[in-house]
Amino acid sequence: MLRPVNFYLNAIFGDGTISKYYSNGKAQCNFSNTNEEIIRFKAKMINSKYYKRQQSEKAYGKKPIYVTQKSLPIIDMPKIELIRRIGLEDFFLWLCDDGSIHKRSGFMNLCSHSLSLAENIELSWHLWHYLGIETRVLPERKKDERVFFYQYIPRAQVESYIPEMEKWLYENELTSLLYKIGKVYRLDENRRAKQSEAGDTRNSEDIVNSHK
Fold first, then answer.
1. By three-state DSSP, how is residue 146 classified?
2. pLDDT by residue (tens digit) across 20-33?
3. What is the C-alpha to C-alpha distance for residues 145 and 197, in angstroms, rounded to an integer?
4. Burial class (CB in 10 A: 0-12, 13-18, 19+), 195
5. CA 30 → CA 137, 144, 195, distances in Å?
6. Domain encompassing residue 49
7. Could you read off the pLDDT of 116-132 as tens digits, one per residue?
8. How far is CA 1 from CA 45, 63, 84, 190, in A?
9. How many domains would you assign to the chain?
């Protein structure tokens, strides 16, 4: 289960930001997204509220943005050490923020532009040795000649974790993000999941099979 430490990591590696550090060992972590579901989920997990803010016409295609924030305990260590604390749910959460799938070829890219080359290499090593997910670090050159790096995840590797991530998305009511793994929301699967949560185990085998 995700804990505040996971969202501190998400503020560093995902769509979050840290705006202020306090003397009591905590930091102000801010999360924003145009997807209400993911912000509602993050707000719930960090025991906070969220609100909607209208953006200017040039931002996010005029979409409203949803925001939540919380003072969370600091993990006082270099970023390369924080990478070594990333677990599977942290990885799923990061994919929700910065992952994209190529529908035709089935590979995924994880935007990790905030990391240096050395940090990206460490991330790739960690994902393989601790989570069993093989990635490749590739460069992305911008028009102004700046170079960033991202994680390329081959199709076979994507297929290895899609069933578990799909189940995780349903369990956390993040069905609007199924497109991140090339899936679509299916009402019948959602109904079976809710039946299982309510104690009706008659369809539990069907639920498991639907994620294979």
1. coil
2. 889 899 999 999 99
3. 51
4. middle
5. 28, 29, 35
6. 4-76
7. 999 999 999 999 999 99
8. 10, 31, 18, 20
9. 2
